[in-house]
Amino acid sequence: TQACLTAIEGADALGAFVHKTPELALEQASAADARIKAGDAPDMCGIPMGIKDLFCTKGVASQAGSRILEGFKPEYESTVSGQLFDAGAVMLGKLNMDEFAMGSSNETSCYGNAVNPWRRGNDDTALTPGGSSGGSASAVAADLCLAATGTDTGGSIRQPAAFTGTVGIKPTYGRCSRWGIVAFASSLDQAGPMTKTVRDAAIVLGTMAGHDPKDSTSADLQVPDFEAMLTGDIKGKKIGIPSEYRMDGMPSEIEKLWADGADMLRDAGAEILDISLPHTKYALPTYYVIAPAEASSNLARYDGVRYGHRATLAQGDGITEMYEKTRAEGFGPEVQRRVMVGTYVLSAGFYDAYYNRARKVRTLIKKDFEDVFAAGIDAILTPATPSSAFGLGEMAEADPVQMYLNDVFTVTVNLAGLPGISVPTGQDKQGLPMGLQLIGRPWEEGDLLNTAYALE
Ligand code: GLN
């Protein structure tokens, strides 16, 4: 813990930690020491972690990267962070993220963006750590903590993991409780760990997961010992390569990474099969209807009364002006865009044409996966991202759709509620890390982690 606190002090330029909690960390670390001495030391005992700013942490600022939650200190602890602390984990502070987890580069954060510790060769251009869990990825990659929590609604764990050479797993929807995590799109949101290795991911996920009566979508299932399932034996496993993920204009380095990954799994005894997921091309538009729709509803609660920021009002302003001014000041442009898109697709005249249509297509996307799993496929191998990390400002200056295209390989997994993991498997010509994604059957994170372990 002390070593991490020192490293964090020297790493302000990365912008990874946005609220530091050194006193709390030292207190938790001595409590962990006492547990170790008493012979009661669970796996996470004394492990220094960073917590994404989206998690409500008791008495510690929890702003979801937004100005509208300025000054908000929750009275309660999210279930996931609470389980980690009960198991002895130490919190070093809160980690940077895109505002309300909306973004793929951490550039929508109210704190300013986190930076990727990696550089392109000798080029000094600052690169994005990805988003929305960019602070988590940057902190783990730069050794500021041993592990971090992330959340993934449309790739926000897996894409930053791929951009920073770290491991990130989004578990099956319902595996981790969403209670106490600021909601973005409730039918897609899942928490998961970001770590250096697959083994660490297995250990941390085991502590984060589990049934919680406070989240009605949390699954009442036993959490297996994921670490014990890491045998490295994947003989006879059937790995599918979906043709629809071979996009036009895909960089040759990503294609090579993908082919090399398939070879590695084949060498380890797996069978590699071509498969088809025919509705893949509709995934991005479907996601960018459903996620903003749910977000517009979830974000209605930020009214200047119950939480955080309230605008200064002028003489004669009424409650409408209070809402308008507070929300105009408190939400950044990307969040405002999502709220507008969301309310539009949910409005009476357009509901059927957009929201209901998107829900139907979502069912078809889910069925594509069910069909290949029913045909015997154990896991699906794809690239995690269409490129390696891009420069800060490079995409944000283009139109927002350019940024949305970054999520092309990741959003299908959220729409289908499946577990997906990003594993670092190579580097591009400039030495930047690149990752592959493995998608597994529902509730089979153990198998998925074991396949990832063979790829690592
Ligand atoms: N980049 C996606 C978005 O902006 C994913 C975000 C996420 O997974 N939280 O919606």
Written overview of the protein:
- The chain has 456 residues and is α/β, with parallel strands linked by helices.
- It has a domain at 2-228: Amidase signature (AS) domain (Amidase signature (AS) enzymes, Alpha-Beta Complex), CATH 3.90.1300.10.
- It is built from 14 helices and eleven strands.
- It has helices at residues 2-9, 22-37, 79-86, 134-141, 158-164, 198-208, 252-267, 283-298, 319-330, 333-346, 352-374, 400-404, 411-416, 445-455; strands at 17-20, 48-52, 90-95, 147-152, 167-170, 190-195, 238-242, 271-275, 379-383, 420-427, 433-440.
- It has an eleven-stranded mixed beta sheet with strand order 1-3-2-4-6-5-10-11-9-7-8, sandwiched between helices.
- A hairpin with a 5-residue loop joins strand 10 (420-427) and strand 11 (433-440).
- It starts with a helix and ends with a helix.
- 56% of the residues are buried.
- The site of glutamine (GLN) has 13 residues, from loops.
Quantity of strands, as a count? 11
The shape, in one word, is globular
**CATH class value of the domain at 2-228:** Alpha Beta
Give the DSSP E fraction (strand runs of 2 or more residues). 5-15%
Query: If you compute it from the alpha carbons, what radius of gyration comes out, rounded to the nearest whole angstrom?
Result: 21 Å
Alpha-beta content class: alpha/beta
Strand line-up of the largest beta sheet = 1-3-2-4-6-5-10-11-9-7-8
Quote the average pLDDT: 97
Low-confidence stretches: none
Distance between the termini: 27 Å
The CATH topology assignment of the domain at 2-228 is Amidase signature (AS) enzymes
Helix content: 25-40%
**With helices defined by DSSP (H or I, 4 residues minimum), what is the helix count?**
14
Enzyme class: ligase
Subunit structure: Heterotrimer of A, B and C subunits.
EC number: 6.3.5.7
Organism: Primorskyibacter flagellatus
